[in-house]
Fold:
Amino acid sequence: MPVVITEIPRPPETLVQAFEELDVATVHEAQGRKGLLASYMRPIYRPTKIIGTAVTCQVAPGDNWMIHVAVEQCQAGDILVVAPTSLCEDGYFGDLLANSLQARGVLGLVIDAGVRDVATLTEINFPVWSKAISAQGTVKETLGNVNTPLVCAGALVHPGDLIIADDDGVVVVRQDEATQVLEKARSRLANEEYKRQQLQEGVLGLDLYKMRERLTEKGLKYVKYSEQN
Amino acid sequence: MPVVITEIPRPPETLVQAFEELDVATVHEAQGRKGLLASYMRPIYRPTKIIGTAVTCQVAPGDNWMIHVAVEQCQAGDILVVAPTSLCEDGYFGDLLANSLQARGVLGLVIDAGVRDVATLTEINFPVWSKAISAQGTVKETLGNVNTPLVCAGALVHPGDLIIADDDGVVVVRQDEATQVLEKARSRLANEEYKRQQLQEGVLGLDLYKMRERLTEKGLKYVKYSEQN
Amino acid sequence: MPVVITEIPRPPETLVQAFEELDVATVHEAQGRKGLLASYMRPIYRPTKIIGTAVTCQVAPGDNWMIHVAVEQCQAGDILVVAPTSLCEDGYFGDLLANSLQARGVLGLVIDAGVRDVATLTEINFPVWSKAISAQGTVKETLGNVNTPLVCAGALVHPGDLIIADDDGVVVVRQDEATQVLEKARSRLANEEYKRQQLQEGVLGLDLYKMRERLTEKGLKYVKYSEQN
Amino acid sequence: MPVVITEIPRPPETLVQAFEELDVATVHEAQGRKGLLASYMRPIYRPTKIIGTAVTCQVAPGDNWMIHVAVEQCQAGDILVVAPTSLCEDGYFGDLLANSLQARGVLGLVIDAGVRDVATLTEINFPVWSKAISAQGTVKETLGNVNTPLVCAGALVHPGDLIIADDDGVVVVRQDEATQVLEKARSRLANEEYKRQQLQEGVLGLDLYKMRERLTEKGLKYVKYSEQN
Amino acid sequence: MPVVITEIPRPPETLVQAFEELDVATVHEAQGRKGLLASYMRPIYRPTKIIGTAVTCQVAPGDNWMIHVAVEQCQAGDILVVAPTSLCEDGYFGDLLANSLQARGVLGLVIDAGVRDVATLTEINFPVWSKAISAQGTVKETLGNVNTPLVCAGALVHPGDLIIADDDGVVVVRQDEATQVLEKARSRLANEEYKRQQLQEGVLGLDLYKMRERLTEKGLKYVKYSEQN
Amino acid sequence: MPVVITEIPRPPETLVQAFEELDVATVHEAQGRKGLLASYMRPIYRPTKIIGTAVTCQVAPGDNWMIHVAVEQCQAGDILVVAPTSLCEDGYFGDLLANSLQARGVLGLVIDAGVRDVATLTEINFPVWSKAISAQGTVKETLGNVNTPLVCAGALVHPGDLIIADDDGVVVVRQDEATQVLEKARSRLANEEYKRQQLQEGVLGLDLYKMRERLTEKGLKYVKYSEQN
Structure:
């Protein structure tokens, strides 16, 4: 059953690069609020932001053997996405594996478990989003899968999907929806710029978004503090 | 039932400013160890410290509509305090709302839920104390209340109360107790300065606080390691 | 029953210093993956790293009296290790106690509870590994023990044991095993340097660690994406 | 500062009895979804249900002294509501205190902390809603308050308020709102009975609540599985 | 974007019935340890066990509108599987919805959120596996999806998949893998019966599973207590 | 390094039996409030109570191999105590292992991880105290230790120590302190019986424990509700 899928299709580089002006929150909104990993996935340092292609790796609890296997499947521009088959916060990944991934041009790691050597990872500028920081080591005894679809921190990730990760968290975009999401995200962005200026100048969101009438319809009342009963 | 209370009374500016030399721990002690929000409320960047007047906002889970309503009730020197009616870690608040609040002179946000765009919030120096960081967006469908008393992270907050927030957490001071708390906190502070000097010079707390006799009364024994049985 | 053990034996200074080139993850591996404190023990600032001798202090929930007692038992090069007798996240320790410990040359604090005044502790460069940051104060009513063995964050700590704490967490080394652990850790380190170079040059771990054959034996299959059924 | 408020006003017995046909969920809805304690408050045995008047008791972490003080303030039909000033899961309460409360006609305990002797409490039919079950004992050293307003598991409770607790959790009703809440709850109940019959007969909620039109307006689409693109 | 998929294909009834002799742990093992929902999903009463076909329902936080929509898509033998788009523990589901589902022959509910009216649900024998029990109500404002694939408590569920739920938890079996999983599970079961007898008679697992040699190879040592150094 | 210690000394049977009239809370108090396992350790069914001798077993995360090894070291009257080397909630133990232990007269299991087949374990009356219930299986690849001292759920357990486990939780008594603890616990018990009668008759704890004077000394005030300012 354990399998490594090789030569996965990846989105065109220009498509990936086009996401660089976008952040996680905007992309998440643009694709209808799906694909967000759980908020316990935090970057080991801030600020940081990466956009790349998912190589997926499913590991046994307390066992990082398959990460070594996954490294070989990674290429420049990839982001390694690791999930254990059951809850585990061990430190699956440290500076040696980071050296190996950096040598291949991998941009960072997203792992629903623990990471270690975070001082060195910070120094060498290799970003990681993880559930925990832990020095607890792992063994190399049990097989898993590379480049099969997996659930990572509550989100379904297919190999070749786009991963956007920044200080707010991590979102996954399905490869075949990426172009459409990009378009929607860009139009949100354009829209936001105008809103930002208005709000900075003191225009109220109540007016900018024309909310007053609907609030009244729903029954919102305004009462002076001094006139409460 | 949903209501916005307007024109809430606020403490005099000079009173608020007088708290600037104080920190959360000192104020919390000075008022008899009450009014502290739960320790899961963490600042999105450090160091940071703000002191201001509470505008309160109660929201539905996954719905930030009332925050837009609350903005209009805020003025310079205020701190917005938001609590959902049930457990929620969604990202209720991002950079656009921060722009809007900053345009009005609001000092920061305290929210018993999630926040997003933390990279931008850090850049523009808008501090937030929150339960989570999450890119998860919210809807605008359900009414709530502005400037009614609410429980935020385990502490009762009335509109117009003083909020002190720093790297240790957040404490609320009742508006009508603020003068008295200020006095007590100042006397603690004066007292602490002397203690600090003594301790820095190597005087033991056991002697400075005259603890030895009471420890003996309570039955504390000293035994040499080599003479344990 | 409450007792303070005095004049505990400490490891020779040269032995402690010899650990300075090592980090938590390496030491933990070198001693057979034992002695690691739970991963919820996080430093209040990063980067940071200390190595020293444990003085242990067992406290009641919400009561820091025994920390004042423990200070007197500390000397230069020590690390204070504090554990409550039941779950508690109060802020047992703040800047005054830090001043007192720094005056004695103590290197830092490891506490399975909360800490406060973290802005000041960061400024004065006094590192703390804790379960929580909380302004919640404590009382001084109940005795406990100093320099008896205790369980801190899931690890057994004896007074005089070595503590290594860095950005990854905290590990304890039994005093009588320190020399042996040091040796093993050094040999790991030497070994790692070579591996690091190889990996940085792009050699795969699969080859460096000769994993391919064993992976095949265990049944790992490689399948092209385009050839999956 | 520590104080015991005596002779608190209680709602009339007939009013309390009138709530007996109601459950927590119905009352919570009827009062506009406020006053619910956090869902981690669980009964030690099920099924169980009590309705009574709150006597409040604020305790220090790990210290149950004030519960002994509170017992004297309790009378038949009361429910004791206990909250610590900071997070604590110790076993503040056991069979002896339950004997004492039962001797006074107290109906049960709601405690935002731990409880012990749950086998005996179950046998003698004394219900407790708590955050934890723990054999960890407490001390008797620090004062607190009896019958002052407090926040228990996220809800504000005043002495004399109504407490309804059942298998779903615990809700508090303000004494001065009890009559009004009762009325609304009764009308909900009447309403529910009809709905229940309809639903049991197979009428769909979509039709019973006339939801179809609004769903369509909001944009809900129906697509056959076989006709998805 | 919100959509209800109708007329989903379901596995043949005889296939579903064939799973009745199996439990969650056996099925999970038989399909290679995948498809298990997180262990925080607990039944509201025990013992209980159901096997059926998944109808999936994705809801907004604090909003149960789509559950009413999903009811219509359910038929006899189905199990409703509900997941919110972000963390929420509100009581989405109570006795009225249970009446409605029971009227259609639905076997139970699996919900990655809260449930209420658990006393009644227990009485009417409608089993629920949930993350929380909470009386907190929900609104009906925001659309979601019915019968689209979703991630529930960390597991990917497609409409029409088999759900097996018992006292140990919940597992999902892909519809197109069900026959194969059934076979493997049955052979495990047969195998287990023999092992059970042997173990009950006192045969050691070490011998039954022939582990001794491999343990020795791996380096396990046996030392008498009295002969430890 | 992995080792199985055989022929551990056990306390005399009569000593163990003498604890049968005692419960966890009483024993915990009697030994000075130490040795209690964390309150997340809950029995899979209630009521239940066992007293026996600890056989300890340290396992790798997600790997139950050593439990099979430990079985052989167990004899009638033992309780198996299992702790993983890092956080893990997998179902390490099920009905087959329970059959094997029951065949040897083992009384129950205490495991700082998950357990499965709880319906069967309940039927065959084999009690387990665990951190989680989970159907997630484990592998058999990595060695650990049997009958070495370990930390289980925050408490240090040596092989041969006494374990008392009931509905309140689990406490460990050091073998060499058992006689002394027994005596103290018995005297507590005798003492409690008198107190219980007094309290049941309505005598207040305030009087029975003579607390009134000390409360006054500490500064407790009594104020009538109607006379508050």
Notes: Chain B has a mean pLDDT of 97. The longest strand of chain B covers residues 50-59. Chain B touches chain E through 15 residues (CB under 8 Å). The radius of gyration of chain B is 21 Å.
